[in-house]
Amino acid sequence: MISLDKITTNNKALYLAYDQGFEHGPTDFNDENVDPNFVLDIGIKGGFNAIIFQKGVAEKYYPSTSSGQVPSASSLQQSSEQAGQVTKIPLILKLNGKTNLVEGRDPYSPLLCTVSEALDLGAVAVGYTIYVGSEFESKMTSEFSSVVREAHEKGVPVIGWMYLAGKFLRQAQDKQKGRELTAYAARLGLELGADIIKIKYPGDLESLKWAVESAGKTKVVISGGVKENENEFLETAKTIMETEAIGMAVGRNIWQNKNPLEITKKLKEIIFKNS
Ligand code: FBP
């Protein structure tokens, strides 16, 4: 069994996702959060279980120490009282990625970084997106399996972003189908050997419960999605935590918020409530 201790707290988890610059482009950013140091600072001060970067951002912004020790981002800017302060935030390195600029074909997200490279950058876990239902799904399940093989040989946890996508799925969408497909994506994560899967909220409590049950011993975290009204977002988080999901991996709903640390605090109260 691969240990998740470095990226969980009492079996619960909150991750700060920051690979949207790759997946969506700088359109998600403003003058502040376009700077990876700004988001790293939120991750550290907010006490997230890990931050999620692509390789290039990790190389340039996440100090390369195997202990995962990084200087506080604010200490890099405001020298005096914070200089020298050392804070920890574990790194999850995203090994594949794609832009949203290629239209007309089902998505394929190629492997761009190896597990060894991720470890050299200080990562304690790795992530990979599979577009379940894409015409290129088999390429991604195959690459994912190689990642799991190498990572598990090294004792490193693997997180599978199990995202539904593809022409066939678009044709077949109703509520019941959505429930089945989310559970299928979750189950695929278990079958492929993922330690944690990240799935999108399927829209209601019962569907999520079934997906989490289908994932078996593979742990489940839910992604944040497009920024929404703060209260609605927190209500969804409460619903998510009524299931056996261990937590969330959120990006835009944190670092696009006017007060990222305040919403982080509220979200942590929900996720870590009884832990
Ligand atoms: P968000 O909380 O901002 O949605 O981030 C979670 C995430 O999975 C990111 O890791 C990824 O870049 C993004 O969502 C992909 O979103 P989409 O599938 O909508 O393109």
Largest sheet features: 8 strands, parallel, barrel
Oligomer: single chain
Cα separation of the termini = 22 Å
User: Which small compounds were modeled alongside the protein?
Assistant: 1,6-di-O-phosphono-beta-D-fructofuranose
Rg, rounded, reads 18 Å
User: How many beta-strand elements?
Assistant: 10
Order of helices and strands: EHHEHEHHEEHEHEHHEHEHEHH
CATH topology: TIM Barrel
CATH superfamily: Aldolase class I
Helicity range: 40-55%
| Main β-sheet, spatial strand arrangement | 1-2-5-6-7-8-9-10
* Number of helical regions: 13
CATH architecture title: Alpha-Beta Barrel
Q: What percent strand?
A: 15-25%
CATH class: Alpha Beta
Structural class: alpha/beta
Number of domains: 1
Q: Looking at the structure, what is the overall shape?
A: globular
Compute the average pLDDT. Answer: 91
- The low-confidence runs, each spanning 5 or more residues with pLDDT under 50, are 64-68, 71-86
Structure, briefly:
With 275 residues, the protein is α/β, with parallel strands linked by helices.
How does this structure look, described?
The chain is of the alpha/beta class and 275 residues long. The protein has one domain: TIM Barrel (Alpha-Beta Barrel). The chain contains 13 helices and 10 strands. It has helices spanning 20-23, 36-46, 55-61, 73-77, 79-82, 115-120, 137-153, 167-171, 175-192, 205-214, 230-240, 252-255, 260-271, and strands spanning 13-17, 50-54, 69-71, 86-88, 91-94, 123-132, 158-164, 196-199, 219-223, 247-250. The strands form 2 sheets. It has an 8-stranded parallel barrel, surrounded by 4 helices. The chain has a two-stranded antiparallel sheet with strand order 3-4. α10 (205-214) links the parallel β8 and β9 (219-223). α9 runs parallel beside α10 (205-214) and α11 (230-240) packs parallel to α13. The longest helix has 18 residues, at 175-192. The radius of gyration is 18 Å and the shape is globular. The two termini are 22 Å apart. 1,6-di-O-phosphono-beta-D-fructofuranose is lined by residues 17, 19-20, 23-24, 161, 163, 223-225, 249-253.
